[in-house]
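Case 449 in the screening queue. Each case pairs one protein sequence with one candidate compound; here the compound is flavin-adenine dinucleotide. For every case the pipeline is the same: read the inputs, emit a complex structure as tokens, and attach any notable structural observations.

Predict complex for case 449.
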Amino acid sequence: MNNDFDVVIIGGGVSGCAAFYTLSEYTNIKRIALLEKCDRLASISSSSKGNSQTIHDGSIETNYTAAKASKVKIAADKVMHYALSKGLQNKVIFKMQKLAIGIGDTECDFMIKRHEEFKHIFDGLSFFTKDEIKKIEPKVIEGLNGGDRIENVVASGYLESWCAINFEKLSQNFAEEALKTNNESEIFLNFRVKRIRENQSGGYTITSKDNREINAKFVLVNAGSYSLPLAQHVGYGKDLACLPVAGSFYFVPGTLLRGKVYTVQNPKLPFAALHGDPDVAISGVTRLGPTALAMPKLERSKYLFGNINSELLKIDLKVDALNVVLNLLKDNDIRNYVFRNMLFELPYFGKKLFINDARKIIPSLKIKDLTYAKGFGEVRPQVIDMSAKKLELGEKKILTNRGITFNMTPSPGATSCLGNAEVDTLEIVKYLNKTFDIERFYKDLNVVV
Ligand SMILES: Cc1cc2nc3c(=O)[nH]c(=O)nc-3n(C[C@H](O)[C@H](O)[C@H](O)COP(=O)(O)OP(=O)(O)OC[C@H]3O[C@@H](n4cnc5c(N)ncnc54)[C@H](O)[C@@H]3O)c2cc1C
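Case 449 output:
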């Protein structure tokens, strides 16, 4: 077996698979390996159970500024065009209605202003009054006791959009396409990277837990929550720590919502406001969530507090990291939000508390309609920048200029997978003195430059 590769990607989630595809299809790099610790691709955050299955393009995500939405939209469009160009309609990518709703006078004012600003970024973005919403998403308007809810409601969104996606299947498709186009590309499953060290040829030797070795001239670490521990193990990112925030979901019957319904963000809160998303992998159910529960684990497992990670303790047990978290908790809104979200996980009581939040979207929701989605949801590895003393809300990249890059990809990392793959590919070809056919990449993904 030849264990020498030009590029080794660690992590077979949607980020790793998108990079594997982009490098295999659009560069002249020949030997590319994808290493994954599990027995299949995309079984952690990118699994169909792990996330909200949404191409977050910024049109209905009220936690994005116009600047962020314009940026995210470029990456989101690449994912949509990829899926459509490969004929993955109704298998991987799904069309549905999507609305961001404002409830009550303050939120309605916010939505009206937001719509005016965002309609210039999003072609065809439509505005809906309460009467119009009643026709297209009736359960949002139906009150607890039958009549219409009292508050005014407005919405901004689309009656049809390719906005729902199964990132797990998308990852598998990237991998299949990569193997089809480059017969020297290889995938190694059940390869848990234990050690990465520089070798004498100026590259890296990567060792698995069961002592298999693979050499690489360039290493791209897309290991989700494990990217930061791996970076620190190689000596990078020592000024960063991680706040893992798990997101869970509740199921409601799919008959209640026709499409995606997003709510207005409390700007003080670091995580997206509750939303409703019809499930694209299980028919007949809609997910409400995700909740936000800080927990001492890098990946979720069967037991809420089982498998506490020693890797996490190593990177987090630092005064500066704890200070950033304690500072966040000084804010009343954040503190209440954190404690409420802890209670949402409790059997029986969790549901009773969660329904109050869920009724913001579906006022007539009954407790019998809510089921905790056991085994669904994953951990968002939010990065703490100890030098800047703040919690980073988006993604983080550690560039070393020494043939190894680390990506940390909390939400909307899955939406940005091809955008990130493009940036990494540019860096890799420069480092290895190879070429990237970016014109064809843009043409295939319908990117206007
Ligand atoms: C509740 C929730 C909802 C979300 N909803 C959305 C959404 O709707 N839209 C969106 O765009 N984003 C969403 N996100 C974010 C999105 O899920 C992630 O950004 C994305 O899946 C990250 O992909 P990834 O490939 O970087 O990481 P992952 O999917 O976590 O993949 C990392 C891979 O690395 C492997 N790995 C780790 N360590 C090692 C090792 N030592 N050796 C070998 N392999 C290793 C893991 O097994 C895993 O397969 C959501 C996240 C959460 C938690």
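Case 449 observations:
- Residues 247 and 428 are 33 Å apart (CA to CA).
- The longest strand covers residues 153-165.
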